[in-house]
Write a structure and sequence with these properties.
With about 160 residues, the chain is of the alpha/beta class. The chain has a single domain, classed as Glutaredoxin (3-Layer(aba) Sandwich). Helices cover about 35% and strands about 20% of the residues. It is built from 5 helices and 7 strands; from the N terminus they run H-E-E-E-H-E-H-E-H-E-E-H. The strands form 2 sheets. Strands 5-4-3-6-7 form a 5-stranded mixed sheet, covered by helices on one side. The longest helix is centred in the middle third of the chain and has 15 residues, at about 60-75. Mean pLDDT is about 90; it is low at about 5-15.
Length: about 160
């Protein structure tokens, strides 16, 4: 009975969450490194974007982040951009972690203090990633960390969206 209730609650929490084919959620969030600077989702129009919701305390997030650095290195930011949105309570924790894995700061890193994006996307877990096409529509949803096999599948979808 308990598992049925948990399943029902999970199903309700996912109801209404953005799905493949839906428009991506609009946002404006401060830069993790330069708090007087922010990114508006409108600036990402015309690009293929991987929006990753993460936290430094999340083990799965820690595992996939080096793979994201490698993936971003394969593409120009004009074509494809990985946008990280940290939900850490202390932004310095996110900065400290990223300093170890993204030494050249090639990933676009934002700070979501009020957890706007996890609420809007009704994220059932961390990390959660959303592949967004040039048209601003969600092309794929990934809940949980991506391993090398998942990154390979993601890379194939990116190439397809870029027409390569």
């Amino acid at each position: 009975m308990r598992s049925i209730i948990i399943g029902f609650i999970l199903a309700i929490s996912l109801f209404g969450a953005p799905r493949v084919g839906d428009k991506a959620v609009k946002f404006q969030l401060p830069n993790l490194y330069e708090t007087n600077s922010s990114l508006n989702s409108e600036k990402l129009k015309g690009k293929v974007v991987l929006l990753n919701l993460w936290a430094s305390w999340c083990g799965g997030c820690q595992e996939e982040m080096p793979l994201f650095v490698k993936l971003q290195n394969e593409y120009s930011k004009e074509q494809f951009e990985i946008v990280l949105s940290s939900i850490d309570n202390i932004p310095q924790s996110a900065r400290d972690f990223l300093a170890k894995v993204d030494k050249k700061s090639i990933l676009t890193s934002l700070y979501d203090e009020n957890k706007i994006l996890p609420k809007a996307y009704r994220c059932p877990g961390m990390p959660s990633s959303f592949l967004i096409g040039k048209d601003g529509k969600i092309q794929a949803v990934y809940v949980g960390s991506l391993d090398s096999e998942g990154i390979s599948e993601l890379n194939s979808k990116i190439k397809n969206l870029l027409g390569k």
